[in-house]
Automatic annotation (TrEMBL), chain A:
Subunit text: Component of the eukaryotic translation initiation factor 3 (eIF-3) complex.
Intracellular or extracellular location(s): Cytoplasm
Family: Belongs to the eIF-3 subunit G family.
Keyword Protein biosynthesis: yes
Pfam families for this protein: eIF3g, RRM_1
Compositional bias (Gly residues): 174-183, 196-205
Protein name: Eukaryotic translation initiation factor 3 subunit G
Length: 296, 347
């Protein structure tokens, strides 16, 4: 899209980025044409450590043909008029500039409060967090454990059934055994959700939603960082009705972090998918699929 | 997506339109000079000099040879797009609020403003599509809008059967495009209709209103098909073409109140709604003032918005925009793919 604006003339191929200046140093790069239409380029150069290095690259050149409406092509060739008359082709910086990148992803149930982009204050906060080297105990991401998107579906690593930190109001002082068996994870549980809170459970949590989620949710690891949610959906949809696909992405680069969660409507579908997709090759990596760990 | 900012105008934008192929953008603002831009890279193609007042409206014919503009200097002018030559100037008693070509480009309508002693009139001219030809000064139809409140927007429906107008009171009216007879009137909005834009086939249209809603109307029956509710006055609304089913709303707090609040509170965002489900699905911010106009490229690959801040922002959509689907839409697509015979049965 915006690439048209940034295109610098004279640069034809990304592969030439490095070779151009280095090629002048020592022997000229050898280019051989292969039978399958690719080219092999052998370059000898001296690397940063002062060592002589030989690099062999195999490149396939593809010509991208674009169909264009002849009227549009004609209009592109028109000479400029009015205030622009006589000016060279291409956007001029005084009238045309590029704005900041905007991330726009349509979402179901959009609410204005949930900003699509972070406000400047948020960014500042994020910067500070980055410097502090934070590691989530659940997914090892760079956020606080409490902010982890998986805190409801997964238990922290190596903390399967620890005693809860909060005191059970039914049995104060008997903390070690009472709540421990039923509530691992050790996170704070508001009173109305605790065991024996007089049937008030399921208030905000929409009944057994989490149980169902846990039962039919798969954790997929070793996902290619170029994967998209739609790719995963395609793979997993073959084995049953998928209700949710979550692919963890790096906030900065927008690339996948390497793991994802897939929820099925039916547990038997999930089990079958787990069996079949585990070990499936996808984007030069082999997927590992297992059931997501349960919290409660 | 990285928006392209077009900053050729010195004052608030009033309307932006795409050419039929979506390659050129024409913009008019309260300064006196309409501009043309290449949508792909934001390069300015040129400007059309001649007007002597703020411009309110612009439209381009389907072959992108003729450009019509109208404004507060009480004239509507026709230009040759390629050379910037003024072909024709029509003079009126009051300013032109809206002009629009019919679907085939053979007719042009202009709406004059109601002012003391003057009524809102709709003038229709027959247009010769040849830029070299002499254009007529005599209107082929003149509708004097006597009984209804001030006309703010107007347009030709499919095959130029009807002329549909939006009014200051929030009502929408339908006129016979041959005889000028008032056929139907509905009171769909509570406040002034600010914009009226057609679907690709001109069988339905969307109106944007100050009453913080936009509504989808059927062009034949004027029945309200869908309503999109926002939390701010809406200045403009556009319908995205197939295969995407969205509408884009642009608005924001009235221009006169803008300085009293920060940009974030002003709600100067383009709002995307799902056309069928009427849900808001996202927003794009960027302007420092209310959005006066939003337009979608007829190929659906980009949209642009003109703001009170004097900028036109052109956005080329990213893949997530095209991939987004509701679960029911996905299921439907799957069913059609897996069992094409079922669809045939239904047909």
């Amino acid at each position: 899209m915006a690439a048209n604006v940034q295109n610098t003339p004279g640069r034809t191929d990304w592969a030439e980025d490095d070779t151009e200046d280095l090629a002048t140093a020592i022997p000229a790069p050898q280019i051989t044409k292969n039978k399958d239409g690719t080219e092999t380029i052998v370059t000898v150069f001296i690397n940063d450590d002062g060592k002589r290095v030989k690099r062999t690259q195999r490149i396939r050149r593809t010509v991208v043909k674009k169909r264009e409406n002849p009227r549009v092509a004609e209009r592109r060739g028109w000479t400029k008029i009015g205030t622009e008359a006589g000016k060279a082709a291409g956007p001029r910086p005084d009238t045309t500039t590029l704005g900041e990148n905007i991330i726009f992803r349509p979402v179901m149930g959009f609410k204005s409060g949930q900003a699509q982009e972070t406000a400047p204050e948020d960014e500042k906060k994020a910067d500070q967090l980055k410097k502090m080297q934070i590691k989530c105990r659940i997914c090892s991401g760079d956020h606080f454990t409490t902010k982890c998107p998986f805190k409801d579906t997964m238990a922290p690593e190596g903390e399967a059934a620890g005693a809860p930190a909060d005191m059970d109001d039914r049995m104060p002082g008997d903390g070690a055994g009472a709540g421990g068996a039923t509530r691992p994870g050790g996170s704070y549980v508001p009173p109305h959700l605790r065991d024996g809170a007089g049937g008030a459970t399921g208030g905000e949590r929409m009944g057994g939603k989490f149980e169902r989620d846990d039962l039919a949710t798969l954790r997929v690891t070793n996902v290619s960082e170029f994967a998209e949610e739609s790719d995963l959906r395609e793979i997993f949809e073959r084995h049953g009705r998928v209700t949710r696909v979550f692919l963890a992405k790096d906030r900065e680069t927008g690339r996948a972090k390497g793991f994802a969660f897939v929820s099925y409507a039916d547990r038997s579908d999930a089990a079958r998918a787990c069996e079949r997709v585990d070990g499936y090759g996808f984007g030069h990596l082999i997927l590992k699929v297992e059931f997501a760990k349960k919290t409660a | 997506m990285r928006p392209i900012l077009l900053q050729g105008h010195e004052r608030a934008l009033t309307q932006v339109v795409f050419s039929k192929e979506g390659d050129l953008i024409f913009s008019v603002s309260k300064d006196h000079i309409p501009s043309a831009w290449y949508a792909a890279n934001g390069e300015r193609f040129g400007a059309y000099k001649g007007h002597q007042g703020a411009l309110w409206t612009v439209d381009v014919d389907p072959t992108t040879t003729l450009l019509a503009t109208g404004g507060a200097d009480n004239t509507m002018r026709l230009w040759e797009v390629k050379t910037g030559r003024e072909i024709k100037k029509w003079e009126f008693n009051t300013s032109i609020r809206r002009c629009e070509f019919s679907e085939d480009g053979r007719q042009l309508l202009g709406v004059t403003e109601k002012r003391t002693g003057q009524l809102s009139n709709i003038f229709v001219y027959d247009i010769n599509p040849d830029p070299e030809a002499e254009q007529t000064s005599e209107e082929s139809l003149k509708i004097v809008v006597e009984d209804l409140p001030r006309v703010t927007v107007a347009g030709f429906s499919a095959l130029s059967h009807y002329i549909v107008t939006g009014h200051d009171s929030g009502s929408v009216a339908q006129w016979d495009a041959k005889t000028g007879e008032l056929l139907n009137e509905v009171f769909s909005h509570e406040e002034s209709v600010m914009d009226l834009q057609w679907s690709a086939d001109r069988t339905y249209f969307i109106t944007a209103s100050k009453d913080k809603t936009a509504k989808l109307h059927d062009a034949t029956t004027l029945e309200v098909l869908k309503t999109y509710v926002a939390d701010t006055p809406i200045n403009s609304a556009a319908i995205t073409p197939e295969p995407t089913n969205y509408v884009i709303l642009g608005g924001g707090q009235a221009a006169m109140d803008v300085t009293t609040t920060s940009a974030r509170q002003g709600k100067f965002e383009a709002r995307f709604y799902h056309k069928i489900f009427e849900d808001e699905i996202g927003r794009v911010r960027g302007h420092f003032g209310p959005l006066n106009y939003v337009a979608v490229s007829p190929d659906g690959k980009c949209y642009c918005s003109g703001g009170e801040d004097g900028y036109v922002r052109v956005h080329h959509f990213d893949p997530p925009y095209f991939d987004f689907k509701y679960e029911v839409e996905r299921e439907k697509a799957r069913e059609v793919k897996d069992h094409p015979e079922r669809l045939e049965d239904r047909l």
